[in-house]
Design a protein that fits this description.
Layout: E1 2-4, H1 7-18, H2 23-30, H3 54-60, E2 68-76, E3 79-86, H4 98-111, H5 116-129
Antiparallel strand pairs: 1-3, 2-3
């Protein structure tokens, strides 16, 4: 994810990313988002439930792996921010019995422990599901 305040700059950065420029380098250099130092990469997979704006959610999750989505204008406090995303990969949820995936999940958790941002995301979803206002967690898509 790459976030800038200027819409024209966002359009230019999106065009550069679509032309094949290194998205992570663009994010490190230009983005005002907390993920900039990590090249715009989130610590966790982005799910549809994580994106509040229906227009952003629809376009983002229709973008194929390797594609660039945006810029999207979103309100943040008194400013309008422009978000550009690069989709690294797309995974389809699997519905299988726990016994079939338990060993795989355990091995994955040992290799990649759940980051704090993921717990914040779960907390926010639970609050929203029960009708409470919840601000996005640090590093979370608006």
């Amino acid at each position: 994810m790459l976030v800038v305040e200027d819409g024209e700059e966002a359009r230019g950065l999106a065009a550069r990313a679509r032309a094949g420029e290194d998205f992570a380098a663009l994010a490190r250099e230009h983005s005002d988002h907390p993920t900039a130092e990590k090249g715009g990469r989130f610590d966790f997979p982005l799910l549809e439930a994580d994106v509040n704006d229906p227009e952003v959610r629809e376009a983002l999750f229709a973008t194929p792996a390797g594609g660039v989505a945006g810029p999207f204008a979103t309100k943040g406090g008194r400013a309008t921010w422009h978000q550009v995303y690069r989709v690294e990969s797309v995974a389809v949820a699997r519905r299988v019995p726990w016994a079939e995936v338990a060993a795989e999940v355990e091995a994955d958790l040992e290799k990649r422990p759940v980051p704090m941002g993921e717990y914040e995301r779960w907390r926010r979803r639970i609050l929203l599901r029960h009708g409470f206002a919840a601000m996005p967690a640090p590093g979370e898509a608006g």
